Amino acid sequence: MRFAHPGMLLLLLLAPAYIAAAFLSRRVARRRLTALLPSPEQRDALRTANPSSGVIRAVLLAVALAFLVVAAARPQIGFDYVKVQRRGVDVVLAIDVSASMLARDVTPDRLGQAKIIAARLIDAMGSDRLAVLPFAGDSVLRWPLSFDHGAAKMLIESLDVMSAGKPGTGLKTAIDGALKLYGPEDQFEKVLVILSDGEDHLGGIEESARQAEKNKMIIHTVGIGDPHGVPIPNPDAEGFKKDRAGKTVYTRLEPEPLQILSAITHGYFVQAGYSGDEVKKIAGAIGALNGRDLKSSTVAQYRERYQWFLIPAVALLALEAGLARRKRRLP
Hints:
Layout: E1 2-3, H1 14-36, H2 40-47, H3 52-72, E2 75-88, E3 90-96, H4 110-124, E4 129-135, E5 143-146, H5 149-157, H6 171-179, E6 190-196, H7 205-214, E7 217-223, E8 230-231, E9 250-251, H8 255-265, E10 269-271, H9 277-287, E11 292-304, H10 307-329
Parallel strand pairs: 3-4, 3-6, 6-7, 7-10
Antiparallel strand pairs: 1-2, 2-11, 4-5, 8-9
């Protein structure tokens, strides 16, 4: 026998505790009643009275409670092999790791907020396959399409501005990297989610977006940052990044490139916030897709036997209730 919720069995300690409490309460009540009786004969009669009815009811309730606890722990005996088909959508999370993502116009910074949004999105996903693709001047597949969402979250947390290797910012590198995961025969709906401040130095995003749309890839984009310019912290030293002329380099959220990508591929553009609405919108859009059969496996499905304990518990409770009614009717 195994239990689906073995932790519930700790509640079995309540059964003996209830019996002890019932006996103690009855004993205290008899002492108080004895002290109120005026004559020694009445007190002797109370001491010799048969308390079996109360004892039986207490035991019945305690045993019924024990049976209910075991039933709640869901005992299982035996199993059957069942074929399970997992159905879902392929989702590629492309996270901008360029230097501008170090800007602190959001908390803790743009890259930090991208990680938070990515983790929330993964938590909201169902049985979808997930890949992680950091990008800057190039993209590098750091986690292939997999059902292991927990490992993907751990990898995302470790990303930094060196994760893509080549500096710069090119949104098309994220699209091209995602398309490399599929061949021309993979004509099914798939999703690319880009988390970026929208800065793009390479161009060619419309052409890449149309290629993605041709391959049935929907691109949702999340704009991270503030439209007003802020300086970029220097990742290698204190202070802020400067250009060749020695002037401080500023960065701002540029939503237009992200909006173009989403519009061409029939996806959503949302601006990051602290309420989590952007996650709900994108997760809802992913969940609305039909998906496809991703993986079939044979699993052991255990046979539930909680009814073996639930039925006796109900019977004992009914018996206790009958004894209680009988006691009230006695003259």
